[in-house]
DNA sequence: ACTGAAAGTCTATGTCT
DNA sequence: AGACATAGACTTTCAGT
């Protein structure tokens, strides 16, 4: 993982559909060299995928909520996580430190759908109670944190 | 927005680097037709971008925290949001209903860096206090919610 | 809105340095 | 690890329906 890799990653986080040829121009390598590096980054699990991002309101998912999930005394984390994964409206799922077991992000069409979803969440074995925070607006989301990538490539491959 | 569009979106959410030729095969259209549809979805703002997703631990960002930001009585939401946007470690920022003004997701390298980041957050004008929840593990994140897309295309363009 | 064709570009692989 | 060559695939545009 040298600076060239970091710049490739930054470029792909910014534009996941950039061509290898373009990437090569950006980092000063041939397309085939970039192709090889990206392949290795994918194989190594550094790059886990490429995804289109969609405006949720324009696809009928205008209601977002952050839901804290408090476990029962006898709850099994893995079982709870597995059941959360079954619910398509649960977009993200974090196991957290503190009173709650999980914090999940739920995305649904309407507040009615949110109510139904919360009902499903509460019915999961191991869930004692939930606490919902409705998102009024998403200022930004999933921004790439590309701190130290602006430097020129150093050429010293790792 | 017909079923074909929804299937195209679902495919691009799953694999943002899929080719138009492939997409065409998946939805039963020519590559040029798909190209045109995707262009329209982008122009309409339905598809807002394409991004590579990276394993945070493998790029030196192993510590994630969800931070509730409680405002002062005189806080200006927009100013606070603008200042949050300046901090690269703040990956997502939600304006929420309830006691807190914002919930943000912070991604940093170490707990020391988290402490520094929380200091920066608290120093923002309009921030009264913060409440941090450290993420122990991310079970899944940003999953596509593609509910009603498995049906065959109906061919009735909107 | 879609198809099909055509020109240019890119990918993916192999060889060589 | 990367450059270069290349065959096949893909993109992008345009005329036609």
Please describe what this structure looks like:
Two copies of one chain form a homodimer. Chain A is of the alpha+beta class and 158 residues long. Chain A folds into two domains: 3-51, Winged helix-like DNA-binding domain superfamily/Winged helix DNA-binding domain (Arc Repressor Mutant, subunit A, Orthogonal Bundle), CATH 1.10.10.10; 56-134, Alpha-Beta Plaits (2-Layer Sandwich). Helix content of chain A is 35%, strand content 28%. The first copy, chain A, contains five helices and five strands. The first copy, chain A, has helices at residues 3-14, 20-27, 31-43, 77-86, 111-123, and strands at 47-54, 63-71, 90-96, 102-108, 127-140. Chain A has a four-stranded antiparallel beta sheet with strand order 3-4-2-5, with helices on one face. The longest helix of chain A has 13 residues, at 31-43. The first copy, chain A, is elongated. The relative contact order of chain A is 0.19. The model of chain A is unreliable at 150-158 (pLDDT under 50). Strand 1 (47-54) of chain A pairs antiparallel with strand 1 of chain B. The first copy, chain A, binds a DNA duplex (17 and 17 nucleotides) through residues 19-22, 29-33, 35-37, 157.
